Amino acid sequence: MPRKTYIAAIREALAEEMRRDARVFLIGEDVRIGVFAGTRGLHAEFGDRRVIDTPISELAVAGAGVGAAATGLRPVVDLMFGTFLYLAFDQIANQAGAMRYMFGGQTTLPLVYMVQNGTGSSAGHHHSQSVHPFFMNMPLIKVVMPSTPYDVKGLLKAAIRDDNPVVFLNHLALGGQRGEVPDEEYLVPLGEAAIRRPGSDVTICAAGLMVHHALKAAQLLAAEGVEAEVIDLRTLKPWDEAAVLASVRKTRRFVAVDESAPVCGAASEWAATVAEQAFADLKAPVRRVSGKPVPIPFSPVLEKAAIPSVAEIVVAARHCCTQ
Amino acid sequence: MSAPAPSFATILDIYTRMLKIRRFEEQVGQLFAQGQLPGFVHLYIGEEAVAAGVCAALRDDDYIVSTHRGHGHVLAKGGDMRRMMAELFGKATGYCKGKGGSMHIADFAIGMLGACGIVGGGIPVAVGAALSAWYRGSDQVAVSFFGDGAANEGSFHESLNLASTMRLPAIFVCENNQYGEFTPAHRAMNIRDIAGRAAGYGIPGVIVDGTDALAVYTASAVAVARARAGQGPTLIEARTHRRSGHAEGEQAFLAGQEYRSAEELAAMRAGDPLARLHRTIVAGALIPDAQLEELDQTISQAVAEAVAFARQSPEPALESLYEDTWV
After folding, report:
1. Interval A242-289: pLDDT, tens
2. pLDDT in tens, B217-255
3. Which residues of A are catalytic?
């Protein structure tokens, strides 16, 4: 199978979906140039009408996506960084995230907001946050966070075909990562987790960059005789509760790892669900390993310290397993 | 580009739309005062000439996006009084099955893409509808209604610039009713003419007397023709007044404080847009008085039927709480 980068896989997904469906188009600031290269080259194939460069106006562009989706198109709105979604918050929370319900089902909103999320480039707080919990909290928004080139392509294609608004979070640190991506068409369905490493002693649940940290932690744990099962959620909302609960019922221990801050973070939601639904199966209290409750610092050393480390995951899993 | 003077049929059409709005809103005001409506409502009384004049210049397949003061826009675009009244009562037969209420009424079948409870929140959505028309190669246009308050929101500025740079078939209609909630516009902006802001985005800005329905119609027809011809957006500032308060029952928030003088209110009543068009029609002997009276009775009857329909309609079933979420 050919090996491609995460970014190349994004580009393939966009190109394939735009070829397949004339209603799909790309809009955002610098999508022609493609700052992260995910959209690079698409303008040459699809032209001005379908690859639309806009002013730096996140709110208006996000809302234009809503209006276009409500009138028969399938926009992919590229807002570049997760933090820039804050500038578009009103349109996502009040319009995209509510319109179908608020108007009694009169419309669908096939709409993708695509950004780079998380840390990894030492760009400081305004370009490095993990913004997904805000959007997980919006009832009608789907949230996707792929961890591999294979998944980013299959999930993005599925997100574009989905009739609901999707916040699609590519991980900033994973753009250059290579992995197997078939040339043949495939989709990765939204809402289905993947077991990245089977194990019998503890379940580690993560998404995006944290999946890679969790897999490294699992290797270290194996050397200590602890077999961790690593679950990559892939979609944060709706998330695959069934896969997580099945794993926990087998391993009877649970560690939730998420890059965002701990208060109302993604890990909190997973941990709460496991505690509610599988308490009787647990041999140890659930553990969360979250980002630190600080703005993301610039220094590479501090930035690394601000998100869960492999060592912290190992410690949390070990702690579960000694109870 | 100039537009022909409105025909007799158009004048009557505009008057009918305005009268529907007036009688509907008067009824809503009474129902609210009687405590029969949940939530709160913002009435369009005094501003009817804007919605009616603009919408008379549109085709059925054109789009509009509305505001928190949106009942008039729905009716002007051809909406159904019964379904709107039922929505105001929160009933299952309402436009949004009782999930939207006064500030979230939409009728996609007539291109009415929704009222909006956030000041300025609908403007980007209208730009998206205009973008959609452009993308599909259709000659539809999209109108965004908003108030003077929204002209100070970032969404207004971003949207005008985006629509201008893309030459989208968008028409921005600022209903300058001179108050953002209880704050007069002159304290919220250091300019007099909101239309002047159009220059900052390289599009035409037009000021029109928003109590003169025919002037609104003519200005809209020019903007619509321009948009359909691919020449881009127009900002229309319709100077009007909000004869009702910001919200019905506002005395409760105001707690005895006054924000408009008796003289100002009297001037508003004197400048009533509906009476003005009525005078025009009578003076021109366009329609016999009796026929206008009959029209009024027909509309009042329709409003009464809408209320009856709303009252008789069922509450939403509790199961519907989880309906219309994900497709």
Report:
1. 999 999 999 999 999 999 999 999 999 999 999 999 999 999 999 999
2. 999 999 999 999 999 999 999 999 999 889 999 988 899
3. 58, 127
CA of B264, closest CA in chain A: separation in Å? 35
| Interface ipTM above 0.85 | yes
Quote the radius of gyration of chain A (alpha carbons, Å): 19
For domain A194-321, give the fold: Rossmann fold (3.40.50)
Tell if the CB–CB gap between A70 and B108 is shorter than 8 Å. Answer: yes
Q: CB distance A103–B121 less than 8 Å?
A: no
A3-180 fold: Rossmann fold (3.40.50)
Which residues are CB-contacts of A97 (< 8 A; sequence separation ≥ 6)? A138, A139, A140, A141, A165
Q: Do A164 and B124 touch (CB under 8 A)?
A: no
- Tell me the CA distances in angstroms from B62 to B92, B208, B298, one per residue in order: 27, 22, 27
Distances (CA, A) of B267 to A168, B46, B245, B258, B271: 54, 11, 15, 16, 6
Inter-chain Cβ pairs, chain A and chain B, closer than 8 A: 146
pLDDT at A121 over 90: no
- State the span(s) of chain A assigned CATH 3.40.50.970: 3-180
Rounded to whole angstroms, how far apart are CA atoms B305 and B181? 32
Residues in Cβ contact with B289 at an 8 Å cutoff, skipping those fewer than 6 apart: B282
